[in-house]
Write a structure and sequence with these properties.
The complex is a heterodimer of chains A (377) and B (524). With 377 residues, chain A is mainly α. The longest helix of chain A is centred in the last third of the chain and has 29 residues. Chain A has a two-stranded antiparallel sheet with strand order 1-2. Chain B contains 18 helices and 22 strands. Classes of the chains: A mainly alpha (377), B alpha/beta (524).
Chain lengths: 377, 524
Amino acid sequence: MKKVLGILGLLVAISAFTAAVNPDFLEPYNLQNLIRRTSLYGILSIGVAFVIITGGIDLSLGSVVGLVGVLVPWLLVEQGFGIPAMFLVVLATCLAIGLIHGLLVTRLSMQPFIVTLCGLLFYRGVARFLTDDQTQGFGTGYTGLRQIAKGEPCTLAFLAMVLGAAGVLLLAWVRRLGAFDPRGVRLGLGATALAALSGALVWLLDVPRLSEIRAPMPFLVLIGVALASGVFLNLTVWGRYLFALGRNEEAARYSGIDTARMTVLAYVLCALLAGLGGVLFALDTPGIQPASHGSFYELYAIAAAVLGGCSLRGGEGSVLGVVIGAAVMRVLYNSINLLSIPTQLEFAIIGIVILLGVVADEVVQRVVAARRERRPT
Amino acid sequence: MIERPECPGSPGRPESLERLVVRGLTKRFPGVLALDAVDVSVRRGEVLAVVGENGAGKSTLMKVLAGIVAPDAGEIELDGRPARIDSTRRALELGIALIHQEPNLADNLTAAANIRLGNEPARLGFFDSAEIEASARAALAEVGADFGPEVLVRELPVGRRQLVEIAKALARHARILLMDEPTSSLSGKESERLLEVVDELRARGVSIVYISHRLAEVKRLADRAVVLRDGRRAGELDGEHLDRESLVRLMVGRDLASPSARPSAAAPGGERLAQPVLEVQGLVVPASPRHALTFEVRAGERVGLAGLVGAGRTELLRVLFGIDRPLAGRMRVGGAELAPAHPRDAIRAGVGLVPEDRKRDGLFLPLGVRENVGIATLARDARAGFVDAARERTLTAELVARLCIGTPGVDQPVEQLSGGNQQKVVLARWLATNPRLLLLDEPTRGIDVGARHEIYELIDELARQGVAVLFASSEMEELLELADRVLVMHEGRIAGELARAELDEERVMRLATGGDRLPVGEAR
């Protein structure tokens, strides 16, 4: 929780600074775009977080996005597949990729870094070979399908109001069950009530600019993915097993957890979310270059997960943190443009900010640990 | 690294007889006072034995002297001058070297490379291989090694590795050797050899602080013995007073009474035979493929597994719990055949295992007591795959109360608990599963005396409720205290069985070292 607050602070600080220097940051169009990009990358980041929580890593994610990005238009436009058939092929591909990664890591005890590094190279090669390196696109067709990525069904304020209200009702019911951590439920109630209230205020009062922001479709997908992942990780037995396995694999095995199966599950979830992100990216991008589409995305995703509180040693991380981490990455990118910092410095700045964020977190942890040490027990 | 010549005392000053003097050394760990104002001194050319039960503070003392652990209070004098040992490097510079219980070497390197590791002579920044070999050869000769410096450490048996460790210390001009149970993982012959080396080092003026549980070894080797008990100095013995009886008396703080007067849980009147809970027939453990094991444990019975390190006790428990697969043989738990392919299968059949190394195999350290206790029962209590957090919370709270786990709350991270309380957390995890067979591997290793007795009582209580208990222990005291019956293992086989009435250290040791069963007492 503290980590989430820390990264949230970083997000607010960068945003405030950028907005102060260049008010264009707050333009509805810019914010809307930021939300869309954050959502797309956020889905990938949540995927890789599953693997990182078990103490593994997935470097192949960007190439999976590339492969899926190529597959979608190639299957539809060039191979003449129907939309459901296309989805099926993509789903099967990603499922197979995740299973193969997981099985290689568990059955053959191979290092995740190596397995997924080979995946990174392999899927990229397949994507380029399939399309003979030709740019893929949808032309003018499939506008309906592409609404899944490009659509903006409602305003953000309306969405916050509706979802917030639904959340309040759901949590109130959950509270009556009494099975879940009461503190968490209370916190969730507060957050959803706040969302509903602020959404309602903005919507009803028709606050200029704020009420103009529309919610992009990928944002709706992200909310769905994040909620499902958060519930899975925090409230289900398998979610708890993933954390336990990441903390101490031996102890998990001694406690009767089928650690191999759980590890495979993490890689499969990661590949599936990479596929989902890949489909959205594909539908969002006008011309897909097989050689470069999605490259480096695995690193953006890993960076977002680490910024959001995942430890590469495993056993730590929260979905909310990861999503905010992804937002920090996108806001940084946006700031570099808006502050007219030379784009050549882009990577340098993103690198430095991530490093500072992680160093600050480490320093804070040490100070806290030292304080605890000094306190007599 | 600067070469330091050996410099015993400063010239022009009469050399003090005491080489190392420690006064009022105190070290507190969360929940445990590991050292409580301990005074110790060692002279030149003296072997000082430090003895005490597990958790008495011996290893902490060694760690402080070796610069691994910083003391909370106390002073240390070296050759009459105050010294601050604030790092392992500083300790080495002062001529203090720690020989670990298990050799701590880079086994992919040669003996020579290990001996000069971190202290390599260099010429123009490159290794001076010739010098490394020569100095290592000399150091190995000093410890009477029968192998050359060019041998890869991984090809050496443990006993020889121990010699490499000592040679490494000598190559660094160590004047004080701290040896922490150096013979615990050695065979009889290897131990004897090591003791000879220690004798020789003493003759050459090296001071040796020697921790050992083997009292015969202490008697044979030590000039003096300091006994620690619960972090305090319980007393000192030297010369003719240094004998086994007196040592034990100081260690346990009372005369060694007959094996605890408590009645056996399994046979209150001596005769009632309960149902066998665990039946093992012809079980072949992969670690020792030549021996088949057959035994049983009855409901309410507490069976001890005795034996030296490497006798195969842990390996047997691992197979019973489904961590390793047996090569052959059958086991039945509660009358039903069990061939566990994974601990999950064993747990479903009502088996629990408290592992020897609780930090490595038992605990999720940064997680809370609740998560650690609940992990094995999550699936059982789940509702449609969701964790029943409320139930987990109440169950944990109940167990915390029942086991008197010293924790401020059920959400306290277990890394902040003392060793004894951590062990209770692992026990609580299995109690939550309502086991019918509880396997324990060294149930009180590294636990202070108070918590140890609470754990004994808990095991007793479980046995009275009909749980079958099979525990491996290297401590005689523990076997005497806890076991209704002891199976003694030697090199992978069950060398003999001792009923409670015939249980004594000598009988156990004879069987554990491959000797015959003493004729006294009748076989069951």
